[in-house]
Amino acid sequence: MVTSAGTLSPNLLAYGDPAVIPATPPVIAPSNPDAATGPPGSGTTQAPTVPGAPLQPRALSGLTSSWLDWTEASTGGLPITGHVVQIYRKGELVGRVVVDADESHTIGNLRAASSHTFAVAAMNAVGVGPFSERSNTIIPLRATRAFSAPQGSSNTDAIPARPTRVRAQQVRSSVDVTWTVPENAAVANYEVLFIQKNRVVAKAITDSVAGVRIFGLKRGVYAVRVRAVNTAGSSPRSKFARLVFR
Fold it and tell me: Which intervals of the chain form a coiled coil (predicted)?
Protein backbone atom coordinates (compact mmCIF):
# COMPACT_ATOMS: atom_id res chain seq x y z
CA MET A 1 0.00 0.00 0.00
CA VAL A 2 1.29 3.44 -0.90
CA THR A 3 0.45 6.27 1.44
CA SER A 4 -0.42 9.84 0.62
CA ALA A 5 2.31 11.96 -0.85
CA GLY A 6 4.73 13.18 1.78
CA THR A 7 4.12 10.31 4.21
CA LEU A 8 6.72 7.59 4.66
CA SER A 9 5.11 4.17 4.57
CA PRO A 10 6.74 1.13 6.22
CA ASN A 11 8.03 -1.45 3.75
CA LEU A 12 8.01 1.01 0.85
CA LEU A 13 10.89 2.83 -0.71
CA ALA A 14 10.00 6.46 -0.80
CA TYR A 15 7.09 8.84 -1.29
CA GLY A 16 4.21 8.62 -3.72
CA ASP A 17 0.53 8.25 -4.31
CA PRO A 18 -0.07 6.35 -7.54
CA ALA A 19 -3.67 5.76 -8.55
CA VAL A 20 -4.74 2.97 -10.87
CA ILE A 21 -6.08 4.09 -14.23
CA PRO A 22 -7.95 2.04 -16.84
CA ALA A 23 -5.98 -0.51 -18.85
CA THR A 24 -6.95 1.17 -22.14
CA PRO A 25 -3.80 2.81 -23.53
CA PRO A 26 -3.85 6.62 -23.36
CA VAL A 27 -4.14 8.59 -26.58
CA ILE A 28 -0.66 9.86 -27.41
CA ALA A 29 -0.32 12.87 -29.66
CA PRO A 30 2.87 13.90 -31.48
CA SER A 31 5.13 16.06 -29.32
CA ASN A 32 6.89 19.24 -30.36
CA PRO A 33 9.93 20.17 -28.23
CA ASP A 34 9.84 23.72 -29.65
CA ALA A 35 6.14 24.34 -29.13
CA ALA A 36 6.66 27.46 -27.02
CA THR A 37 8.24 29.50 -29.81
CA GLY A 38 8.25 29.61 -33.58
CA PRO A 39 11.30 29.67 -35.84
CA PRO A 40 14.06 32.10 -34.74
CA GLY A 41 13.28 35.64 -35.84
CA SER A 42 9.75 34.78 -36.93
CA GLY A 43 8.08 36.72 -34.13
CA THR A 44 5.43 34.02 -33.91
CA THR A 45 4.48 31.40 -31.36
CA GLN A 46 3.25 27.90 -32.01
CA ALA A 47 0.37 26.17 -30.27
CA PRO A 48 1.39 24.07 -27.24
CA THR A 49 1.65 20.32 -27.73
CA VAL A 50 1.90 17.28 -25.49
CA PRO A 51 5.23 16.84 -23.68
CA GLY A 52 8.14 14.96 -25.15
CA ALA A 53 9.17 11.54 -23.87
CA PRO A 54 11.06 11.63 -20.55
CA LEU A 55 14.59 10.29 -20.50
CA GLN A 56 15.00 6.62 -19.58
CA PRO A 57 13.84 6.15 -15.96
CA ARG A 58 16.06 4.64 -13.25
CA ALA A 59 14.46 1.96 -11.06
CA LEU A 60 15.49 0.73 -7.60
CA SER A 61 14.21 -2.46 -5.94
CA GLY A 62 12.18 -2.30 -2.72
CA LEU A 63 9.79 -4.49 -0.76
CA THR A 64 7.11 -5.38 -3.36
CA SER A 65 7.78 -1.93 -4.78
CA SER A 66 10.14 0.14 -6.88
CA TRP A 67 11.35 3.70 -6.61
CA LEU A 68 11.56 5.45 -9.99
CA ASP A 69 13.16 8.69 -11.05
CA TRP A 70 13.49 10.31 -14.46
CA THR A 71 14.21 13.61 -16.22
CA GLU A 72 11.79 15.47 -18.47
CA ALA A 73 12.85 16.02 -22.07
CA SER A 74 10.44 18.85 -22.98
CA THR A 75 7.16 20.25 -21.68
CA GLY A 76 5.41 21.04 -24.96
CA GLY A 77 5.15 24.69 -23.88
CA LEU A 78 2.87 24.05 -20.87
CA PRO A 79 3.47 22.91 -17.27
CA ILE A 80 3.65 19.17 -16.64
CA THR A 81 0.55 18.12 -14.70
CA GLY A 82 1.28 14.42 -14.11
CA HIS A 83 2.80 11.23 -15.45
CA VAL A 84 1.60 7.82 -16.59
CA VAL A 85 3.80 4.87 -15.58
CA GLN A 86 3.52 1.59 -17.48
CA ILE A 87 4.48 -1.52 -15.49
CA TYR A 88 5.99 -4.52 -17.28
CA ARG A 89 6.51 -7.90 -15.60
CA LYS A 90 8.72 -10.37 -17.44
CA GLY A 91 8.36 -8.19 -20.53
CA GLU A 92 4.53 -8.08 -20.50
CA LEU A 93 2.51 -4.95 -19.77
CA VAL A 94 0.57 -5.68 -16.57
CA GLY A 95 -0.63 -2.30 -15.41
CA ARG A 96 -0.55 1.49 -15.52
CA VAL A 97 -0.62 4.09 -12.76
CA VAL A 98 -0.95 7.86 -12.87
CA VAL A 99 1.21 9.97 -10.57
CA ASP A 100 1.74 13.69 -10.09
CA ALA A 101 4.23 16.04 -11.73
CA ASP A 102 7.18 15.06 -9.50
CA GLU A 103 10.00 13.20 -11.23
CA SER A 104 10.39 10.50 -8.56
CA HIS A 105 7.77 8.11 -7.23
CA THR A 106 7.21 4.80 -5.48
CA ILE A 107 5.30 2.18 -7.45
CA GLY A 108 3.81 -0.39 -5.08
CA ASN A 109 1.96 -3.70 -5.16
CA LEU A 110 4.57 -5.40 -7.35
CA ARG A 111 5.20 -9.15 -7.40
CA ALA A 112 8.32 -10.13 -5.46
CA ALA A 113 11.04 -12.17 -7.17
CA SER A 114 9.74 -11.32 -10.67
CA SER A 115 11.58 -9.03 -13.08
CA HIS A 116 9.98 -5.63 -13.74
CA THR A 117 10.66 -2.66 -16.00
CA PHE A 118 8.85 0.65 -16.33
CA ALA A 119 8.14 3.31 -18.96
CA VAL A 120 6.98 6.87 -18.23
CA ALA A 121 4.96 9.44 -20.19
CA ALA A 122 4.34 13.05 -19.16
CA MET A 123 1.00 14.88 -19.28
CA ASN A 124 0.05 18.52 -19.69
CA ALA A 125 -3.21 20.33 -20.47
CA VAL A 126 -3.04 19.14 -24.09
CA GLY A 127 -2.70 15.44 -23.31
CA VAL A 128 -0.32 12.54 -22.73
CA GLY A 129 3.00 12.49 -24.54
CA PRO A 130 4.98 9.50 -25.82
CA PHE A 131 6.49 6.96 -23.43
CA SER A 132 10.14 6.82 -22.52
CA GLU A 133 12.43 3.89 -23.10
CA ARG A 134 11.95 1.19 -20.51
CA SER A 135 13.92 1.41 -17.29
CA ASN A 136 16.60 -0.95 -16.09
CA THR A 137 15.24 -4.27 -14.82
CA ILE A 138 14.58 -4.68 -11.10
CA ILE A 139 13.33 -7.60 -8.99
CA PRO A 140 11.17 -6.49 -6.05
CA LEU A 141 11.91 -8.03 -2.65
CA ARG A 142 9.59 -9.39 0.03
CA ALA A 143 9.94 -9.32 3.81
CA THR A 144 9.08 -12.76 5.22
CA ARG A 145 10.09 -12.42 8.87
CA ALA A 146 10.52 -9.65 11.43
CA PHE A 147 12.99 -9.79 14.32
CA SER A 148 11.59 -8.09 17.41
CA ALA A 149 13.28 -6.34 20.31
CA PRO A 150 12.32 -3.56 22.75
CA GLN A 151 12.84 0.01 21.62
CA GLY A 152 16.07 1.40 23.06
CA SER A 153 14.29 4.60 24.16
CA SER A 154 10.90 6.29 24.14
CA ASN A 155 12.42 9.63 23.10
CA THR A 156 10.92 10.73 19.76
CA ASP A 157 12.57 14.17 19.76
CA ALA A 158 16.13 12.96 19.18
CA ILE A 159 17.60 11.76 15.89
CA PRO A 160 18.52 8.08 16.30
CA ALA A 161 22.13 7.02 16.58
CA ARG A 162 23.41 4.73 13.86
CA PRO A 163 22.49 1.04 14.24
CA THR A 164 25.42 -1.15 15.28
CA ARG A 165 26.44 -4.81 14.96
CA VAL A 166 24.79 -5.14 11.56
CA ARG A 167 24.90 -8.72 10.29
CA ALA A 168 23.71 -10.14 6.96
CA GLN A 169 23.45 -13.91 6.54
CA GLN A 170 21.96 -16.07 3.81
CA VAL A 171 19.22 -18.43 4.98
CA ARG A 172 18.33 -20.73 2.09
CA SER A 173 16.85 -18.44 -0.59
CA SER A 174 16.53 -15.44 1.75
CA VAL A 175 18.82 -13.20 3.75
CA ASP A 176 18.55 -12.21 7.41
CA VAL A 177 19.70 -8.67 8.20
CA THR A 178 19.89 -7.92 11.93
CA TRP A 179 21.21 -5.02 13.99
CA THR A 180 21.41 -3.60 17.51
CA VAL A 181 18.72 -1.03 18.29
CA PRO A 182 19.88 2.57 18.97
CA GLU A 183 19.52 3.44 22.65
CA ASN A 184 19.14 7.21 22.40
CA ALA A 185 15.80 7.47 20.57
CA ALA A 186 12.66 5.66 19.50
CA VAL A 187 12.84 4.49 15.88
CA ALA A 188 9.89 4.45 13.46
CA ASN A 189 11.51 2.70 10.48
CA TYR A 190 14.80 1.24 9.34
CA GLU A 191 16.26 1.54 5.85
CA VAL A 192 18.16 -1.57 4.76
CA LEU A 193 20.48 -0.78 1.85
CA PHE A 194 22.07 -3.33 -0.48
CA ILE A 195 25.10 -1.85 -2.25
CA GLN A 196 27.18 -3.11 -5.18
CA LYS A 197 30.13 -1.21 -6.66
CA ASN A 198 29.34 1.82 -4.44
CA ARG A 199 25.77 2.00 -5.81
CA VAL A 200 22.57 1.23 -3.92
CA VAL A 201 20.80 -1.46 -5.94
CA ALA A 202 17.98 -2.28 -3.50
CA LYS A 203 16.49 -0.53 -0.49
CA ALA A 204 13.90 -1.89 1.93
CA ILE A 205 12.10 0.20 4.53
CA THR A 206 10.77 -1.83 7.45
CA ASP A 207 9.27 -1.16 10.87
CA SER A 208 10.82 -4.35 12.22
CA VAL A 209 12.76 -3.27 15.32
CA ALA A 210 15.80 -5.55 15.30
CA GLY A 211 15.98 -7.14 11.86
CA VAL A 212 14.20 -8.49 8.82
CA ARG A 213 14.32 -11.56 6.57
CA ILE A 214 14.22 -10.62 2.87
CA PHE A 215 13.38 -12.83 -0.11
CA GLY A 216 14.07 -12.09 -3.76
CA LEU A 217 17.64 -10.78 -3.72
CA LYS A 218 19.75 -11.51 -6.80
CA ARG A 219 22.87 -13.60 -6.46
CA GLY A 220 25.98 -11.54 -5.86
CA VAL A 221 28.24 -9.85 -3.35
CA TYR A 222 26.76 -6.93 -1.39
CA ALA A 223 27.68 -4.40 1.23
CA VAL A 224 24.66 -4.09 3.55
CA ARG A 225 24.10 -0.94 5.61
CA VAL A 226 21.22 0.11 7.87
CA ARG A 227 19.88 3.54 8.82
CA ALA A 228 17.35 4.38 11.56
CA VAL A 229 14.59 6.92 10.94
CA ASN A 230 12.06 8.76 13.10
CA THR A 231 10.17 12.05 12.91
CA ALA A 232 13.25 13.96 14.09
CA GLY A 233 15.44 12.71 11.26
CA SER A 234 17.67 9.91 10.01
CA SER A 235 20.75 8.40 11.60
CA PRO A 236 24.04 8.05 9.77
CA ARG A 237 24.37 4.78 7.88
CA SER A 238 25.78 1.88 9.84
CA LYS A 239 29.10 0.29 9.08
CA PHE A 240 28.68 -2.24 6.29
CA ALA A 241 28.21 -5.98 6.63
CA ARG A 242 29.50 -8.10 3.75
CA LEU A 243 27.02 -10.51 2.17
CA VAL A 244 27.83 -13.20 -0.38
CA PHE A 245 24.46 -14.36 -1.69
CA ARG A 246 24.50 -17.57 -3.73
Answer: none
